[in-house]
């Protein structure tokens, strides 16, 4: 997953451009619910196949229709009889509606996310669609299958940076104003939380991470570690450790999770290897 999907639904639906909705979806009367319909939200984990949870792999194998962003669906092994419905990364709500509509016809449907489906991913869009959609959708069997989030995978690679209190924030201002992002960021830093920043930077949003660093520098010590964890567990994995004073936004893209320590976060130097990073459990009174 990029480390996260944030964006308003576009005009395009959740199917690949130029494709008509599945025949079963076309035939379903509005609000109809046929027996057996099941919709599963599945988190694939950070990237490596062996970091996809066994329950997620089993749930994927049991579904006949897979909905998702193309690069995420590409990570799912092809199986005979399965149909893939590919959509743009910013069409989350439309994708959720299409998946629910097909599940209402009696199909077993999976809606795929990177990382964990409930962390800045598709599970929330599904329940938004259910709440605003036909009453019959509330009768669907909906399961959210947990996955290993980018936050946990990156932390494990570093040591134990989340050993104390921490919070996760998305820097995307597609679904909330930047003033809200900035307020939450400074409040969390001032309260002493380790920060995990999702959606730090993209071609469409190149400035937010630099702005975030500018907000944090008056609050945190210049020596606080900043980790750029990109494509964790994938072939192109890259981990860079800097300080808040030296951290530059150009090190991040949409595949990057940015971890920012606290004044208490420690580094243990190692010969010929990157330092271990951990945050102590104990906080002095």
List keywords for this structure.
285 residues; alpha/beta; Cobalt-precorrin-4 Transmethylase, domain 1; Methyltransferase, Cobalt-precorrin-4 Transmethylase, Domain 2; 2 domains; 5-stranded parallel sheet; 5-stranded mixed sheet; 8 helices
Which helices and strands occur, and which strands form pairs?
Blueprint: H1 23-27, E1 38-43, H2 54-61, E2 65-69, H3 70-73, E3 83-87, H4 92-103, E4 108-113, H5 122-132, E5 141-145, H6 150-158, E6 159-160, E7 166-170, H7 178-190, E8 194-198, H8 208-216, E9 225-230, E10 238-243, E11 256-260, E12 266-270, E13 273-278
Parallel strand pairs: 1-4, 1-5, 2-3, 2-4, 6-13, 7-8
Antiparallel strand pairs: 8-11, 9-10, 9-11, 12-13
Describe the protein's architecture and organization:
It is a single chain. The protein has 2 domains: 126 residues, 3-Layer(aba) Sandwich (Cobalt-precorrin-4 Transmethylase, domain 1); 128 residues, Tetrapyrrole methylase, C-terminal domain (Methyltransferase, Cobalt-precorrin-4 Transmethylase, Domain 2, 2-Layer Sandwich), CATH 3.30.950. 25% of the residues lie in helices and 24% in strands. It contains 8 helices and 13 strands. Strands 3-2-4-1-5 form a 5-stranded parallel sheet, sandwiched between helices. Strands 7-8-11-9-10 form a 5-stranded mixed sheet, with helices on both faces. A 3-stranded mixed sheet has the order 6-13-12. β7, α7 and β8 form a beta-alpha-beta unit.
């Amino acid at each position: 997953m990029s480390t996260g999907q944030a964006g308003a639904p576009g005009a395009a639906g959740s199917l690949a451009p130029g494709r008509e909705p599945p025949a079963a979806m076309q035939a379903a009367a509005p609000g109809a619910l046929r027996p057996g319909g099941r919709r599963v939200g599945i988190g694939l984990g950070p990237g490596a196949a062996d970091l996809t949870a066994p329950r997620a792999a089993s749930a994927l194998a049991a579904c006949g229709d897979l909905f998702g962003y193309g690069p995420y669906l590409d990570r799912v092994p092809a199986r005979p009889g399965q149909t893939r419905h590919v959509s743009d990364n910013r069409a989350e709500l439309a994708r959720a509606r299409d998946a629910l509509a097909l599940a209402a016809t009696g199909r077993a449907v999976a809606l795929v996310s990177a990382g964990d489906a409930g962390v800045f991913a598709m599970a929330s869009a599904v329940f938004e669609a259910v709440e605003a959609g036909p009453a019959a959708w509330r009768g669907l069997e909906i399961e959210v299958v947990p996955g290993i989030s980018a936050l946990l995978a990156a932390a494990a690679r570093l040591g134990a940076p989340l050993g104390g209190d921490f919070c996760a924030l998305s820097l995307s201002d597609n679904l909330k104003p930047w003033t809200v992002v900035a307020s939450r960021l400074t409040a969390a830093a001032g309260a002493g939380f380790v920060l995990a920043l999702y959606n730090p930077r993209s071609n469409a949003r190149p400035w937010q991470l630099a702005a975030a660093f500018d907000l944090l520098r008056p609050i945190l010590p210049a020596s606080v570690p900043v980790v750029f964890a990109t494509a964790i567990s994938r072939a192109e994995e890259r981990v860079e450790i800097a300080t808040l004073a030296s951290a530059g936004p150009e090190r991040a893209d949409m595949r990057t999770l940015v971890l920012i320590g606290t004044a208490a976060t420690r580094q243990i130097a190692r010969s010929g290897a990157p330092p271990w990073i951990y945050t102590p459990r104990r906080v002095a009174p």
